[in-house]
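Q: Given only this backbone (388 positions), what sequence would you predict?
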């Protein structure tokens, strides 16, 4: 049995009011805050449903969440960062507000940007900032919408539910309408294909509507205080229904490393606030797309002998190389494009020649017609002339 511990307070009766009204309340609130602060946060990962049955089995496996990322270590534009922090604070303190406006206490974030720009780091920073658990939902592991619902009902409040690379998880992209049309066309040609597909679909599919229901549905009102995060490298591929405001309330672009983001990394990795090489780096980063992950990798000292200056020089070389590669790539792309255009032009000319040839043939034939027509006309004129 849990040991019950207590403290005995002795005080003069003149302090009775202060003690009962203020002090005890303060102690209770501090106690709760300490419990929250010391709570070990967890990272949950969903189990495939064949492992759900049996003794002690669960839908989610968990490990202790110990990612060190924070908003201080996150390299991005400071105003943008501040905006996100304020948004999170407003959300986490918004219980009454959400109740007042009649909305479930949840918020959706869409994080998009190229690989290595810090989407995962941002999620970790959010969880650390708010002291929330993370549910890393692997959609392809869920067999269908019912399983998805059962998984979500088991999530607890004060949590971030993450679906990474949503564009790869399922066929939830803007392509679905085109694909449906294609399928319809195929079915018209081969009705048997419909049946085969039906079986396939029922064996494993979380659908777009299932996912939308997951975001909007009634379940999300149970317990509240949940953040839903989708990440993607290709925001333009996603179905607009999935990311419209109200579902994904805040869209956050994680972009290539700018000078401000670089300064955060330089401070974190090298403990340097300013350096004469900063101006060169600022200039180079303006012209070159480099992810914070690449910048960080170059800034990290690889041996005891590498000091801040060596690492900054290393970074300058890396950006220059990246710039050269980008230029070469752009030139190659331009060359291929020009080649393609030239080929298309030639094909069009050949097509024109063919058209000209067949036209010439027609003209020869039509020429005969014209002669014939002329004859007819001549006759008519003659006749008219006679009539006249
Ligand atoms: N904005 C950033 N601030 C600080 N570190 C970053 C940032 N972006 C990337 N990094 C560093 O690069 C590593 C990879 O970044 P991260 O996994 O967060 O990127 P990602 O955008 O989620 O990539 P992917 O799309 O491939 O999952 C991180 O561990 C971190 O060290």
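A: Predicted residues:
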């Amino acid at each position: 049995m849990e040991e019950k511990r207590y403290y005995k307070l002795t005080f003069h009766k003149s302090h009775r009011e202060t003690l009962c009204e203020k002090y005890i309340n303060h102690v209770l609130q501090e106690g709760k805050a300490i419990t929250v602060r010391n709570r070990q946060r967890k990272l949950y990962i969903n189990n495939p449903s064949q492992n759900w049955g049996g003794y002690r089995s669960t839908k989610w496996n968990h490990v202790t969440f110990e990612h060190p990322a924070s908003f201080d270590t996150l390299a991005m534009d400071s105003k943008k960062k501040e905006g996100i922090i304020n948004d999170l604070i407003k959300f986490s303190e918004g219980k009454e507000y959400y109740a007042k406006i009649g909305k479930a206490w949840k918020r959706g974030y869409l994080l998009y940007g190229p690989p290595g720009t810090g989407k995962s780091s941002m999620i970790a920073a959010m969880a650390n900032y708010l002291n929330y658990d993370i549910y890393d939902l692997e959609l392809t592991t869920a067999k269908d919408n019912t399983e998805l619902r059962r998984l979500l009902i088991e999530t607890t409040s004060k949590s971030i539910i993450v679906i990474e690379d949503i564009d790869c998880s399922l066929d939830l992209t803007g392509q679905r309408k085109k694909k449906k049309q294609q399928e319809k066309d195929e079915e018209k040609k081969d009705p048997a294909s419909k049946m085969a597909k039906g079986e396939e679909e029922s064996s494993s599919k979380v659908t777009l509507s299932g996912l939308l229901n997951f975001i909007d549905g009634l379940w999300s009102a149970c317990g509240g205080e949940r953040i839903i995060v989708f990440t993607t490298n290709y925001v333009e591929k996603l179905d607009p229904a999935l990311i419209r405001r109200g579902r994904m309330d805040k869209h956050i672009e994680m972009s290539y490393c700018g000078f401000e983001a670089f300064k955060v990394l330089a401070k974190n990795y090298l403990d340097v606030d300013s350096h004469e090489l900063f101006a060169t780096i600022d200039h180079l980063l303006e012209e070159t797309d480099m992810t914070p992950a690449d910048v960080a990798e170059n800034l990290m000292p690889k041996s005891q002998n590498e000091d801040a200056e060596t690492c900054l020089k290393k970074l300058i070389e890396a950006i220059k190389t990246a710039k050269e590669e980008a230029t070469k790539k752009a030139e190659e792309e331009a060359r291929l494009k020009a080649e393609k255009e030239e080929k298309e032009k030639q094909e069009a000319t050949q097509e024109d020649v063919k058209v000209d040839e067949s036209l010439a043939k027609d003209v020869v034939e039509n020429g005969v017609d014209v002669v014939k027509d002329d004859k007819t006309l001549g006759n008519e004129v003659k006749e008219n002339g006679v009539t006249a």
